[in-house]
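Course exercise 7: structure representation. Students receive a sequence record and must write out the corresponding structure in token form. The form below is the worked example handed out in class, using 7-cyano-7-deazaguanine synthase (456 residues). Read each field label carefully; the graders check that inputs and outputs are placed in the correct fields and that the protein name is recorded exactly as given.

STUDENT ID: A-19
EXERCISE PROTEIN: 7-cyano-7-deazaguanine synthase
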Amino acid sequence: MVSDYAIERPDAHVYVCSDGEAAPEHSALCVLGRHLKLEPRALGTFLMRSIPARAEDLLVLAGAVAYIDRLGKRHHSKCWERDLFLSLPVRDFDFWDASDLRDELKSLLEMLTGDSWYLEFRPGRAPLPVDRQGSLSLTDTPPVVIPYSNGLDSFAVARLHAQPRQHIIRVSTGRVGDTEKKVSHARTASTRWVSMPISLPGAGVRLPEQSYRSRGFLFGAVAATAAGIMKGAEIVVPESGQGTFGPALTVIGHEHPDVRMSPIFTSALGRFVSRIFESPIRFVHPRVWSTKGETLAALQIAQLSEGWEVTVSCSRSSRRKIQGSVAKHCGVCANCLLRRQSLQVAGLVSSSQEPYIWPDLGQSPPWTSRDHPVPGKSVVQQAISAILAMRDFAMISPESPLVLREAAAIAEALGEPRESTLHGMHHVMAKHREEWSALLSTFPPTSLFRALGAVA
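STUDENT ANSWER:
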């Protein structure tokens, strides 16, 4: 059946299919196994469960959404919004073709990416291969699923959240170090790492768009699949307060508010995936009313911080330099600035002690000392954007209409009183201002950080 939605000239039109199929006119092919790789055996191996048809469809959908999101280039100087048309095959066609479900999915994606989505489902996709070789002995306690990015928040919350006899399933895009495995197994009855079963190799197709808001749907869909298969009712979102609601309060230019980690998005995602698995799946935010620094301080107090230095926060992954087995952070992107600030708060290391590619951009060229490379224009621009975002979050008034609106929406999503939500937001904002000012004081007066980041 053809989608109810029609659009003449979308910014991207992707037709997901098997190898050998032809795409309709003006459509870009996304061939399963070539442009979009799915390995549900990654789930089956660790969970020893068959993957239902709808769950397979969800994984294909999540990968296809990520593919078209990366394929369709935004024109930032004109407008953030794009028109995206996605057509994909599914196994449970009657379920996905229901108009109310497609409308719910459309609203969910538009909330996340800020684009207009047009969705078409087609019957007849063949089952994906699953290799059920693992085992996970269960107790009466449902497992907890944690999307694990190998950053400081997921590292800290996974350890703080672990309880004796609690089964933890960690959904990760990469390998987990031996230190983390050793500590985790000592704290819980059983821990399983599930590698992300979706990748976008592109196969010669350029994927130019870097905003990648759909990553929140991709990670959430895989975590929900693990939770749904294992009948786990809870997915722990490890993000601290700054990353949860800070991006929505510090929008730059034409950007759509970033709600990837916000309860506003995860509550809607939870309702959507609960329909797929016919079982309630809930996203919880245990550190939403704490700064990242406070989360790391709690980890330090609990004496669970061993191995924090192998975590990766830097958003400039393609530029990262490798020293032995440790990735060297750029030091100037928004993620690195928050990392520097938070490590200092927790007393794990000062900003000047952890190695960064650009530890201190000076106020004028050549920007750095002879011991560090001279950053290009894009690096300086990214540093300026990051500094301004950190500064703006530190300066925003707790009583501004934007904060009040965000608090009302988060309170509704969490099912909490608006007053307690506002109190939690005010705490995070005040602590962030204090922590940001403390970080700025560690830089010399001529530093770009001091020049642009000062809080009035």
